[in-house]
Amino acid sequence: MPWQPACRIVWHISMSKISVMKINSKQITNILIAILCIVFLTACGTPGSSETSQDSSSADGATSDASDQDLIVVGFSQVGAESDWRKENTQSMIKAFSAERGYDLILEDAQQKQSNQITAIRTFIQRDVDYIVLAPVTEEGWDTVLGEAKDAGIPVIIVDRKVATEDEDLFTCWIGSDFELEGKKVCTWLTDFCTKKGIAPDSLNIVDIQGTIGSSAQIGRTKGLVDAAAKNGWNIAGMASGEYTQAKGREVTAGFLGRFPEINVVYCENDNEAFGAIEAIEAAGKKAGSDIAKGEIMVLSFDGVSQEAIEDAREGKISCIGECNPLHGPRVEKIIKNLRQGVQPDKYIYVEEEVFSADQSITAVEVEGNGYPVTIIGQ
Ligand code: GYE
Fold it and tell me: Which CATH architecture describes the domain 66-171?
């Protein structure tokens, strides 16, 4: 470890004191040993003080190594860590924007608060990052801060959920999922399932465990259900936010089961809510499954990211999962690479996604003339 400036100052001060004091050789030896100890301890520093660009949310983030200044600095304001999907999404971004790949990623976790994201963006502007990436917790309320980024000349890429704005010049592009299409696919699967099993559509009593209210994923998935229910004559007994978490999903589902004993479908707007819903169903002495005629309660879900979700689908506890792909890191990195080569991206970039189920009777769903394969999860 190179000597730190502080050591040199300590050393020079100590040595000058020795030169003006009348002292014997034994005392000099003791002083030199003490100085060497101080120098050694100072030079070693405190454990964990090294900083990686991903740790900048805990450090001041200022780069000390000259080579860092050649890195492309990307400020990423992430929603939080509320779900398995979010954690996968974060890891995908960290992997894509590593120092080895030429980036200094400044990752800020907003803990699902828009105010924290706005603060993060302003910090990125102050630090004059090269690019800002924003995964907005909800759609409304971004014009002012995106205007500040635009005035600072910093390109903004929106990822995952959308921002609602009249001025599309406030961001370079958006990349993510078509959430309403996800809802339509899962509801088409439910429609086809009822047809094949001879379940009367008006016998469905559904509750919707919604995502974070006002987020694009919640808006789209809820609309997919509401429109399908109106078209097919399904009964939606209630809807409330499970905030994309397992705990809230369990709490809200338990409340609905107490209020509506006739529930036979729980439409969860992500897998973590579905895990909570299954817990609530089983705590109520019922079974999560697709045999509605036998009193089972069908659980539908979105994401399909974790092994737990796939296992629940394999066991039939989750009857159908609308895929929502979290691996946006390489996609965003490619957009930035293209921008640096003068290639402008499309304004809206949608990722392709499928449907997962263990039920072998439905191998594809058709939505608005387009066919989407159902990946059958083997036993
Ligand atoms: O479905 C959920 C996460 O915005 C698509 O947010 C994302 C959603 C995802 O918490 O698990």
Answer: 3-Layer(aba) Sandwich (3.40)
